[in-house]
Specification:
There is one protein chain. With 337 residues, this protein is of the alpha+beta class. The protein is built from 6 helices and 21 strands. A hairpin with a 4-residue loop joins strand 11 and strand 12 (194-198).
Length: 337
């Protein structure tokens, strides 16, 4: 009860109560702001924010890092140790032979420029994979040339960009990092062979038991058991935001095996005046013509990059500008000796 000498609180004549309609709009606005903020954070978390799951310790990388300021000298020193000779397009040593050729077909708007690297090894351990920033995870990227230089690579191409997705079976240099079977993939083995396979049909433990050293999860398979896979019209790698159609003419990267320890790598320029890129069917025809009995399509588009002896050979993105990737395939000396 109010005492006799107490007075009721005075209302501010200038303060108007919030109407139910205005209160409702304030609540709706707040909900929209929170929802948009959540979506933006989710997209940033998925495609921009680095998530390091494993830091990879690699003796070859550690050695290369100490010499990173003088990469050309370091490559030359290694080459001398294995009795190697080289020029702008060839490399020959006791352990490997690499021969690169630039090929141009067609003319005008139908011209295609691509690069073929024929590689013969004495030991399959010279073919390795490396991760951007020496780390496994998502949204971790470096240029192909930077990863290659950090690993004393003689030759390198971009890999499957595993870090753009969270599925697939990922074995790198004998270590299993991800085991989420999803698509047709490629396995490289310690006897110098490679095999295309369905991730849902062969387990990672079976692959490791058979001597798999690396798996790549992108696709599609181009050639299997000596024959071109006939239909590329319904190929779908994943559903990530911002993907281009994989069926159109695009820059491409592919790996094939001619015989054990005899590989062929192809990088196709595209989306530029002097090279329109290739369709998957055209790429399969090229690999078949080169003698590949197994061939597999890797990440393409702006990722497609070929590196050799300290320089980028092709023209990424049509302006000699590399796009960061999560991983590479590369050749180096001294792994098996």
């Amino acid at each position: 009860m109010m005492k006799i000498d107490e007075k009721p609180p005075r209302k501010d004549p200038h303060k108007r109560p919030i109407s139910p309609r205005k209160r409702r709009w304030l609540i709706i606005t707040l909900v929209i702001v929170l929802a948009v903020g959540g979506i933006l954070y989710s997209l940033a978390d998925r495609y921009l924010i680095r998530h390091v799951q494993v830091v990879v310790a690699d003796e070859n990388t550690a050695t290369a890092t100490t010499n990173n300021a003088n990469d050309s000298t370091n490559i030359s020193t290694t080459a001398t140790e294995v009795n190697a000779t080289s020029d702008d397009w060839n490399y020959s040593s006791d352990d490997m032979k690499v021969s690169i050729e630039k090929v141009q077909t067609g003319s005008g708007s139908d011209q295609i420029t691509y690069y073929v690297a024929d590689v013969q090894l004495t030991d399959a351990s010279s073919l390795r994979t490396a991760l951007a920033d020496n780390s496994f995870g998502t949204n971790i990227t470096e240029n192909t040339s930077d990863i290659a230089a950090a690993n004393n690579a003689i030759f390198a191409i971009n890999g499957d960009y595993y870090g753009f997705r969270d599925d697939g079976v990922i074995i790198r240099n004998g270590t299993l990092y991800r085991d989420s079977p999803t698509r047709d993939a490629l396995a490289l083995f310690n006897d110098g062979t490679m095999k295309t396979y369905n991730e849902n049909e062969i387990s990672s433990s079976e692959l490791l038991a058979e001597g798999a050293t690396n798996t790549l999860s992108f696709g599609p398979i181009l050639i299997q058991d000596g024959e071109i896979v006939s239909d590329f019209s319904s190929v779908k790698i994943d559903n990530n935001f911002g993907n281009r159609s994989i069926q159109d003419t695009n820059p491409r990267t592919a790996i094939g095996m001619i015989a054990p320890n005899h590989y062929v790598f192809v990088v196709v320029d595209g989306r530029q005046d002097d090279s329109r890129g290739m369709t998957l069917a055209e790429l399969a025809d090229v690999m078949k013509g080169l003698g590949a009995t197994e061939a597999y399509n890797l990440d393409g588009g702006g990722s497609s990059t070929m590196y050799f002896m300290g320089r980028v050979v092709n023209n990424p993105l049509g302006r000699n500008q590399e796009r960061g990737v999560s991983d590479i395939l590369y050749l180096t000396e001294g792994q098996g000796s």
